Structures are given as structure tokens and as C-alpha cells.
Amino acid sequence: MPWLERGIGMEAAVVKEGDWVLIYFSEKKSYVVRVEQGRQFHTTKGSIDLGSLVGVEYGSRLETNVGEEFYVTRPLIVDRLSVLKRFTQVIYPKDLAYLLLGSGVGPGSRVVEAGTGTGYLTSILAFYVRPSGRVFTYEAREDFYKMAVENFERIGLLPYITVRKRNIKEGIKERNVDAVFLDMPDPWEVFGEAYSVLNHGGTINVFTPTTGQMSRSIEGLKRAGFKRVEAAEIMYRRYKASPRELRPENVGIWHTGYIIRGQKL
Amino acid sequence: MPWLERGIGMEAAVVKEGDWVLIYFSEKKSYVVRVEQGRQFHTTKGSIDLGSLVGVEYGSRLETNVGEEFYVTRPLIVDRLSVLKRFTQVIYPKDLAYLLLGSGVGPGSRVVEAGTGTGYLTSILAFYVRPSGRVFTYEAREDFYKMAVENFERIGLLPYITVRKRNIKEGIKERNVDAVFLDMPDPWEVFGEAYSVLNHGGTINVFTPTTGQMSRSIEGLKRAGFKRVEAAEIMYRRYKASPRELRPENVGIWHTGYIIRGQKL
Amino acid sequence: MPWLERGIGMEAAVVKEGDWVLIYFSEKKSYVVRVEQGRQFHTTKGSIDLGSLVGVEYGSRLETNVGEEFYVTRPLIVDRLSVLKRFTQVIYPKDLAYLLLGSGVGPGSRVVEAGTGTGYLTSILAFYVRPSGRVFTYEAREDFYKMAVENFERIGLLPYITVRKRNIKEGIKERNVDAVFLDMPDPWEVFGEAYSVLNHGGTINVFTPTTGQMSRSIEGLKRAGFKRVEAAEIMYRRYKASPRELRPENVGIWHTGYIIRGQKL
Amino acid sequence: MPWLERGIGMEAAVVKEGDWVLIYFSEKKSYVVRVEQGRQFHTTKGSIDLGSLVGVEYGSRLETNVGEEFYVTRPLIVDRLSVLKRFTQVIYPKDLAYLLLGSGVGPGSRVVEAGTGTGYLTSILAFYVRPSGRVFTYEAREDFYKMAVENFERIGLLPYITVRKRNIKEGIKERNVDAVFLDMPDPWEVFGEAYSVLNHGGTINVFTPTTGQMSRSIEGLKRAGFKRVEAAEIMYRRYKASPRELRPENVGIWHTGYIIRGQKL
Fold it and tell me: Measured between beta carbons, which residues in chain C are less than 8 angstroms from residue D229?
């Protein structure tokens, strides 16, 4: 898929059938849609014939059927995630970013993850292990599994992902793993197995919402033999982007989860 | 360089001449060193003959000349950064991670950055645009420039970086750029030029320490034509990783800088 | 007013005509009302004949006309504030508390404040300067002024407050002032006047929402001759009070305003 | 003691024997000392004959024996606390302020507190219950008890405090209590007793450092019959008070303790 060739970038100047594009009306109103012949996209500012976008240059300013202006541009990876169908709580970019960097994962890594859920974390990991790495994600529930496969296909990341319909507690099939990510209610039940499949130097990365789970995770990681155990939380504070009244937004997210990491030495 | 082939991972089981390894004594004492024949590494727990590590399996438990135990393992990307020579303030992992993810940059991206400084941000970007992307970094000062080239060579990322000895205010040489990163006192002087070299959909990412600079950056980005201008700060709060007295660390970093981002639509 | 004799406390065991009481149904549903003969109080859990509460012991468990149980108890000072009629943004307890303690104000202090607004800050100051101190509050708008007087009367704090219908920029009438509090868009216009009416050792305390106003306030305080100028923000993070799933609330207040303080030496 | 008559304020214009004064050299250097005949106060900027300050006007600019200028002014309540002898961790102003306001305590309240420790919390409570209220503080250790009595005497708040040399777990002697404050490792052992001595509408206020203690406190308060149980933490973020480089301080306090409150209904 072309948008993946250079992360956000492409030199190709025109929209093609099947591209995912960002439709931008204003700072508060923008959409990510797939360009398909014969499909109409309806907004509160009028509708757009998606087929008519084919051949248009990226960055063009166009109009809806009622004359409202919009831009067509390329979506960022975080925009792309917004089209995933959600059926579980998603992990926020602040946490995804720190989980990724802290884990040591990068292009080429072999990663195991559970549970798949909506596939946010899976997608971010797949995006960054490209082109030669791979993510193995475990999901026991049939309905979640199907949805996830569909999501990865739509977003174009399926070539880098193996989705296993299996409860990770029943065993990890991979060996020579560089990192394991666990976003599940009882991650400690998998620590021993994770330790055995990790490469030396590999990391285990846990994301969990309550202080009790953080406490049990720290204890469990140490007992399983992991070293350099660290626990932290990441906070994101958005500012009102207006120079004349610059200040943090009044209301925002104060808590999502704790990030606990260990390393196999 | 082998450690880069899979991010953190390598299936290769033994230490080779020239590898960077993590020497781990305890949670509070660990070092990143390069394995070289004939070199001694001296610590408060005794010295290690680095040449003797060649051929040792990763994950081995060894002893110093005075009998203190240590592990030999692979360093994470954030560990690797710790060996860079510092001559300017570094950017913290919490900010590096969010700058990266928010920018949309990934494997394959073409990125421009200024100023190079110690090269922390350059290194992270280079690590994640591998293997087919490239980072172009601008540094006007002769001494910083030399140090940066040396740093990138030591850490193994130079193949993915072009270091330009030039003040970015005198012009950006690249075209078709996916993202621009600015960590400099007066980033607004480069916004117009950055806009002209960015691809449609590309992002500009500013990191700046004071509220006044944040205010001028927001204003400047909007004036230069950027859309989706966002300003935020990321906070990292570390916990004492001890189940019996689990609580945040008492003292920590409360401020590093603000992250301001815009997109060319 | 009896409830003020001991802060929250009263030994008197029974509810009297005119008392303000807290009607508590559950953790999420409670009300502050005044006990008056012949008045009905209607809730989603049925209605209460307020006159019938006279003579009831504090702490009693009673029932509404449809049999829903509730407790009658004494409101805290922060509960009392909840009955003030609001027409401007209120200051939150986290900020009220720090403004109070940092200012040095306590029982006996003479305090000047502007603008009155809803009267939250005025009420807290009046509560804590009792019984021998006094708060002088300035409000230029006729409608705000009237509402404020009515509010202070209802809450029982009027005996400790002088409400001046006057723009504080036209001059402060008091001398020998222990502290000045300013919650207004352009506090710097009053700094010179405030300096001249303050006692040596007295403090000026500014509450302001934007970084630009914080910056101008710091500059203005220093120019007006104030020393020990400090700027800070207070954050309040509430936890889900459930041992089994203990964690911070997911969404909350991230910003209200900055507190800037100076002292006349 | 005159400084207490009006909180921070006094109309009296001159320094008297026995007054506590603030000696201010600069934003970073100031001291709180007691004016006594025949005593020298030595600083890195020269020495001051404390007796010579008697009769000097508050706000005067004077010189040390080596010609360094300083101001003499009145200390705030938080300055006054700085002279207490410390032998345990102190509670920070951010927490003291919120504990006070949230508890409902004000002039006239009857308060029970344990353990006394350095007496920071005791002093703040005593300052605000003046002139007709009283704080009863429990301290089992002989050495802490003696130090506390001495501290309260020095700071002038002893008339409002009863210091009991007794472990609060052996029982609370007071009845008709408006609020109980507990800063001790195992506060839950006192919840039942606290409930029985509190007035209806009175509050219990717990300050504790770890998540485990927060969890047990919430559980214990509910079991003891308290309602409106709330848990929170207060964060204080100080800014560099310089308009040209306005930003939060880089390093600061990230954690002190959690505040848990319940009310007897």
C-alpha cells in the first residue's frame, strides 16, 4: 500500500482509487475516508463524491455539493487509527508512543502481543516494525478476532501481522521474540511463558489501569526473573493553541493506565 | 551493524568484536560499552577485560576481576543513546516518543531536523526511518558538527543520516520532505522555508522550553499556512517499583519543553 | 449563625429553623438546603417537608414521602458554597485552599478583594478571618453586586464582609491591609495602589487563567516593588474511591488558573 | 503574641523584643529569626545584632556589619513553620492547605490529630481554629512530645494546642470533635474510635504516602461507617518567575501523599 512506503510520505502527487485520505474542513472537523468509485461521503457540510477525488492532487482545495470548502490530504498514522472499529477501550497516543520507544522495538523486531482488542497497539507496532519485522497478536474471542483481521486489512498493515485466535495463557507459539506487550486484566499469568520465549535483552511491556494491577505486575515480573523493572505513567496535557489566550485545556484525560516494563538479562 | 537488523533483537547468540553490550550489575548500576580486544573497562565493582567477552553468549552471568557478578546483554535504543557525548541539553524519552509518533514518521520517511546538538533526536529518528528512510540534520557550529558525526558513527546510525554543517536559516537543501523537526531558540524563522519543502500531509514538529516560545511558535505556524496546529506537553511520572511501598517517586522532572505541531494540507 | 460558631462544628444536637442542612441520599446525590416552615423540597427520590426537620437530631435517618431514606447532617464550608448563585466562573477548592494558606491570611486579617463575582473566594476568606477580621470586596457591576450581597446574607457570612459597589481601579478605600486578592482580567492595573495600602509584610495574591496574564502579572508585581514573587499552579487529581479498582479518575480538571504572589517588604 | 492577632497583620509599626521577623536579603536568601537583646545572627552576608532591631519600623532597609543590605519584615504563617525543629518528614503547604479546607475546619473548631511529629499540621490547624477553637494532638514518643511542646511554645501557638503524650490507638480522650486528622502508618486502626468521638457532620482526614495505604484507608473508612469517602492527590507546580523565560521549574516534587476524607453523617 503506497502510503506505507515512506511512513507518512509519498512523492506521488495524485489521489488514487483505494487511497485513504484526510478530508479537512476546519481545526474541529476532519475525516479519514477511503477513496472508492461510486461512493458518496455525507457530512454536516454537504456530501462528497469520493470517486471524483481520483486524480486530484494531494493538497487541493475542493468544495462539497453545497459549496463548503475542504482540503484533501494524507492522514498521519494516528489519523489512520481513527478508522479502526472499536469494541474495547483504546490506548492513547501518549501511551502508545512511550510503550514503543521504551520497549526498544523498531524496524525488524519480532513482537508478541495480547490481547488484540481493537488493534490500536497492534497497528502501531506493525507500523514501526516494517518492513522486515512482524507482530504476532493473540485474541481468544471469535468476534474480536474477526474484527481485528478486518481492521488490519482495511488499514493496510495485515502483511506485517499474524493474528492468532487463541488465548495467550495457553502458550506462546513464537520463539526468538524481541518484545512482548500485554494489555489484559491478569498479565502476570503470562510472565513465565513470556520470559521463556524472549531473546536475551528482550523486554516485556505491560499496560494496566489500576494500582492493584500495577503492584501485582511489578511483583510478578520480579518473581519471573525479569530485571530493570520500571513502572511509570505518562500524562498528556493539551494547550489551547491560541497565542492570545494560551493556557492548558480546562478538562482532559487524567488517567489511562500504568506502564510497567522489565527486561530479560 | 547487527544490533540494528531487528531493532533490539538478534537471534545471534554470542557477543562479537565491536558489539555494544549492556553490562548489568544491579537495578542502579549498569553500563553500555563496546566490545574491543585489548581494552579494560573499570568500574567500582572491579574491572572487565572487554576482549574476553567475545564469543560469550548473550545473557551470561560473569564476574569482574574481584569476583563481582554481572550480566552481559543487549542494550535498548534508549540505553544506546546514553553513550552519546553530550554538549547540549538532551531531549527526554517521554518527549522523543511523542514527537516521533505524533509526527507520523516511520520506516521509509525523509526527515529534516535542526539543530543537531548532541544528536539524541536525530538518533531516534534515524532508528525509526530505517532501513529505507533518511534524516538530514543541520548544525552550524563546527565543534557540534564534528561531535555529532562521531556520535552517529559510534552508535551505528550514520548510514541513515546526512549531517549538514550549515545554519538551517540559510535554507533547506532537501525537497519532498515528510517531516521537519525544530529544536532551536527561534524556530519561527524557519517556518516559511519548512512549509515550502514539505510534502502535502507532512508535519512540522517544534520542541521549545518556554511559554513565550510556545506562543510565538503557534502564531508563526498559523501565519506560515500550517493547519491542525496543536500544542501539548508530556509528563512522565515514575513509580517506586516496590509492591510493598508502591507510590510515585518523590522528586522528578516536572518540565522539559512544549511540543507544537502543524501539518501542511 | 450557629454553624459558624465552630467552623463545621456545633454541639447542639437538633436542627433549628433557619439552619442550612445537608440532605444525603447517596455518594452521588446530596443537597444543601435551608430549613424553613411550610417549604417543600422536591427531589428525584420524593419530596421532604423542610419544616418537619425542626427538632430532629443531626445524623438522623429519615424518609421522603415515597419512602426513600436520607440522612440530615451539617454541611461543610465547601458544601455551603454550592448554594451560592453563580454568574461567573468559580474558583475551585484546590486553588482557594492554596490562595488562602499562601497569603498568610487567618483569623483577624483585614483583606481586600476584587472582583467579587459569584463570591466564592470572598466567602472562603470571610470564613477564615472570622471572628475579628474583615473582607472588603469590590464589584463594579450593579447586578453582580446585588447578587453577591444576597449570597453572603444567605450563607451567613455578611457580618464579616463589606461589599463595595465600585471598580477597584478607581482606588482602594482601605488602609492597613494585610492581603489583597485579585481575580480580574487586568490585575496589573491595581498593583501600584495595592502596594500603597498594604501593611509591611502583607501579600498580594493574583489568580489568572492564561500564560500571558501570568507573565504580565509577574512583571508588574516586580515593577510595583513587590518581593518574593512566586508563580505556581495547583492540580487536583481525584481517585476512584474503590479499593478493588483503585486508580485516578479518567477525566478531570487539568487547568483552572495560575496563582502569582508577591510580598511587600 | 501580637503577630497572631490579625493573622499576618499588625498595625503596630515597630519591631518589639520577642517578635519573629523575616530577614530578607534576596529572592533566594531570607531567614526567620526571633528578636532578642544581646543575640547576634550570623549569615554569609555578615552578622546582625538582633537587639538593635527593637524599635525599628517594619519594612526598613538595614545593613549587616559588612554593609550588605536587608529588609526586616513580618513572616507569613508558612515562613513561621520553617523555624520548627524537624525530626520527621513534614507535610507540604499544598497538602496542608487542601487538608484544611476540605476538612471544614475553621475558627472555633475542636480538632484531634495524630501523630504530632514535627508539628507542621498541628501548627496550621491551630493557626486557623484561633481564637476560640482548639487542637488536641497525640504523640506517643517522649522525645517527639518534648520537641513539639517546645516548637509550639516558640511559634506562639501553644495556647491553642493540647499535646497529649499518648498513643492515639489507646483511645481518644475528647468528645464532640469536629474533625480528626491522621498522619500515621496505620490510620485504619483508629477509624472506629474516631467515628465514635466525632460530631455528626464531622470529618476524618487521612494523609498517607503509598497506594496500598490509600486502598486500606478507603476500605477502612467505609467499613467504619463513614460516608462521602473521597481520595485525591494535590500537585504543586512552581514556575520560574521570569517573564522572559516563563516556564515551569524543571525539577520538583512529584509526590508527597494521598489525602483521603470521610464524613460522619
Answer: 27, 241
Chain A's closest residue to B23, CA to CA, is A265
ipTM of the complex: 0.90
Output D84-90 pairs: Cβ under 8 A, ≥24 positions apart: D84/D118, D84/D119, D84/D120, D84/D123, D84/D151, D84/D154, D84/D155, D85/D118, D85/D147, D85/D150, D85/D151, D86/D118, D87/D117, D87/D118, D87/D143, D87/D144, D87/D147, D88/D117, D88/D118, D88/D144, D89/D117, D90/D117, D90/D118, D90/D120
For range B197-217, the mean pLDDT:
96
Q: What count of other Cβ atoms lies within 10 Å of the Cβ of residue A263? A: 28
Q: Which residue has the higher pLDDT, B109 or B80?
A: B109
Please enumerate in sequence order all residues whose Cβ is within 8 A of that of B28, keeping only pairs 6 or more positions apart, or say none: none
Residue D221 and residue D217: Cα distance in Å, rounded? 6
Asked whether the beta carbons of D135 and D129 are under 8 A apart, the reply is yes
Q: Look up residue B200 and give its three cell numbers.
A: 502535502
Domain C81-263, CATH 3.40.50.2300 — does that match? Answer: no
Half-sphere exposure of D52 (CA within 13 A, CB side): 10
Contact C54, C17 (CB under 8 A): yes
Fold of D2-75: Vcp-like ATPase; Chain A, domain 2 (3.10.330)
> Is the model more confident about B73 or about A140?
A140
D247 contacts on B by Cβ (under 8 Å)? 209-211, 255
pLDDT greater than 60 at residue C10: no
| Domain locations in chain C as residue ranges | 2-75, 81-263
Q: What single DSSP character describes residue D250?
A: S
Give how far C80 is from chain B: nearest CA, Å: 34
Let me know: does D38 contact C137? Beta carbons within 8 Å: no
Pick the residue of C251, C255, C256 with the most A CBs within 10 A to test the interface with A by mutation: C255
Measured in residues, chain C has a length of: 265
| Confidence class for position D28, pLDDT limits 50, 70, 90 | confident
Q: Which of residues 173-232 of D touch B (CB under 8 A)?
A: 209-212
Torsion sign over Cα C122, C128, C131, C132: negative
Cis, bond preceding A159 (omega within 30 deg of 0) = no
CATH value of B80-263 in 1.10.10.200, 3.40.50.740, 3.40.50.150, 3.90.550.10: 3.40.50.150
Q: Provide, rounded to the nearest whole percent, the portion of chain D with pLDDT above 70.
A: 94
Regarding predicted confidence, which is higher, D140 or A90?
D140
> What mean pLDDT is predicted for residues A31-58?
92
DSSP C33: E
Task: Tell me if C94 sits within 8 A of C234, measured CB to CB.
Answer: yes
List, for residues B17-63, the tens digit of each pLDDT value: 888 888 999 888 888 898 999 999 999 999 999 999 999 988 889 99
d(CA A99, CA A147): 24
Domains C2-75 and C81-263 share a fold: no
Separation CA A227–CA A232 (nearest Å): 16
B188/chain C closest Cα distance in angstroms: 19
Q: Which residues of B touch A9 (CB under 8 A)?
A: 108-110, 176-179, 199, 201-202
Strands A20-26 and A69-73: antiparallel
Query: Grid coordinates 488562602 are at which residue?
Result: C100
C247 closest CB neighbour out of A237, A244, A255: A255
Backbone angles phi, psi at C102, to 5 degrees: -65, -30
